[in-house]
Sequence to fold (102 residues):
Amino acid sequence: MQFNFRDFLSARRGSDSAGERALAEFRLIMIWIAAIGAVMVAVALLYLAATGELDANLVVATVVGVFFSVLLGCGLFAAAFFSDKSGHDRSVSDAATRHESD
Fold:
């Protein structure tokens, strides 16, 4: 299987499946979130360098803490939007409604 970066980034235009479009959008959003996380790490390191001396432990802790906090927080929101756009929420809601009516 060959990896195609263009298909990875863009939504497939000929696709009628809402799930496939939602997955393509989710991947694009996650790339943007990772890029924004990297920018935030750079800003945090610049701030720390301006206010004091940087050592290796501080740099590693800042990179890991800031990047993964941004990735986790924004990624969970992106996952919630993906779930809604792909129709997973609708199918669960429909199943719950059928179960309650019995």
User: Anything to note?
Assistant: The mean pLDDT is 81. Helices lie at 5-9, 18-51, 56-86, 88-101. Residues 93 and 99 are 10 Å apart (CA to CA). The radius of gyration is 20 Å.
